[in-house]
Amino acid sequence: MADHRFQPETLAIHAGQIPDSATGARALPIYQTTSFVFDSAEHAAALFNLQTFGDFGFTMRCRMETLRVYGAALAPASAWQVLQGVETLPLRMERHCRNARAVAQFLRAHPQVSWVDYPGLPDHPQYGLIERQMRQVEGAPGASGLLAFGVRGGIAAGVRFIESAQFMSHLANIGDTRTLIIHPASTTHRQLDEAQQAAARAVHSRTDSGSIRSPA
To answer: In this model, does residue 101 exceed pLDDT 90?
Structure first.
């Protein structure tokens, strides 16, 4: 980030937190987290396939699958933090929607991007539905902060893009205040064959496996 000059409000979110050096854990306490910052596509794939935990693998599988899928009782302090966050949710969502729309418009015009999937763009198949059901944010329907796009050059280009990104966190989670990014074909859906990836939309139906997803 030293090569760029960011505004203080951006630096306060993106530059203030360093993942745990031993585990790569983003959320604390480390022993309870299912959120890790990835070093590379290989590292992400190994985490999702539970290949990096050794004797701790069974415990992590219980935590990363059972906890993530079924949920668990919330600690009182955690519940209080959730309530604190909910108080500013409307303001944050307006900013998420505005930022995502700006990113989608920028990507649409970029020569190395083959497609952009964001329901806040007027030519999206669901734009009419979004326009009817969602609140207006600065004159346009608020279509969330999540978008997907395709990098020209296939899976290798997608991996290269991810590993060259300086500003965004390489994470699969959504709902964070930070900008996150993931390349499904080489990480979360890597264990699937090409047909299964296509069915899961890890590979976009209109292009190859350069598909990138990002909560902007």
So the answer is: yes
Kindly state the DSSP code that residue 166 receives in the 8-state scheme.
Answer: S
Terminal Cα distance for the chain, rounded? 17
CB atoms under 10 Å from CB of 178, counted, come to 16
How many whole angstroms separate alpha carbon 141 and alpha carbon 145?
Answer: 12
Q: What is the pLDDT of residue 72?
A: 65
What is the distance between the alpha carbons of residues 11 and 175, in angstroms, rounded to a whole number? 19
pLDDT score at 102: 92
Identify the structural domains of the chain with CATH numbers, from first to last.
8-215 (3.90.1150.10)
Cα 43–Cα 46–Cα 50 angle in degrees, nearest 5: 140
Closest among 205, 143, 206, 156 to 183, alpha carbons compared: 156
Q: Is the pLDDT of residue 156 over 90?
A: no
Count the Cβ atoms, other than its own, within 10 Å of residue 69.
7
- What pTM, to 2 d.p., does this model score? 0.62
How many other CB atoms are found less than 10 A from the CB of residue 94?
15
What ranges make up the beta strands (E) of 34-166? 113-117, 136-137, 140-141, 146-151
pLDDT one-digit tens code per residue, 171-211 = 877 767 778 888 888 887 777 777 777 676 654 433 344 56
